[in-house]
Write the structure tokens for this entry.
Amino acid sequence: MKRAYQVIAGLLILFIVVLGSTTCSAQPISKFEETRSLMDTYVKIIVYTDADTAEAALNAAFTRMEEIEQIASIYDSESEAFQLNQNGYLENPSEDLFQLMTLSLDYYELTDGNFNIAVQPLLELWQGGLWKESPEVQQIKIDETLALVDLANIAIAENRIDFQKEGMEITLGGIAKGYAVDEALAVLSQMGIEHALLDAGGDMAAIGAKPESELWNVALVNPDDTSQSLAAFQFADKAVATSGNYQRYFNPEKTAHHIINPKTGFSAGECLSVTIIAGSGTQADVLATSVFVMGPIEGMKLVESLDGVECLIVDTERNIHRSSGLSSYLM
């Protein structure tokens, strides 16, 4: 009996030593963050994890976003989107471009054509100085160009994308950033990250909350005074995106901005700012632009018809419109 007792005692001591050494070697969870210039903005990623995991995870997430940027940019001559615009077709598109194109068609249908990646010829008109022309000339040139803004003229297959009308071009600026945010968060999640926030120039999305279940906080900038905020939101496992007409103008008078109504050819004129809270970065990014184009009445109808989506709209009269469930996110 004494011998058996000694063996059991020895095993117990060994178990305690092994357990103790494992516990001591575990690295503490801390906050790590990094900012890089990507997708025509600054992207910041915050993760809570151990030091070794943080470095690898941040690098992997940024690399994934760079891959998408290199595919979706219409200004990089090496990108797939540039080649598609240049040639009017693209053979063997990557899975990312195929997804971006098919998602864009889905959102085109969902928003009754108010989200339309084929608006690039209209944007080029305004960038080229259309705002200098008389209203009559503007209308003539827009009417001529609107014939190119029809997604029915884009044929998408897994091995080829075709523009079926000469002169068509796309821009993925209303969806690529949100898609890249989602893909980067997917990489972080695959690497075991349970608490993260990614901010891509105002397009944000989170994995979980902060440690200890503390929610993430974000402030909405006042369109009339960007040094002030209109509201503050708190959330976990959600995405937040804002579209506004106070960032990019074509003319010095700031009457023509970059969010074009694809049905009229002119800048959307009913909203100053639209903030969307949704389940994914892609959805939030697309709907922020779409609701801005649709205006507060039709845009709010769309938001209220979608599960898990909320919004705050500031119209051109400075009225604030809130969706029915937004209060649960307000601080």
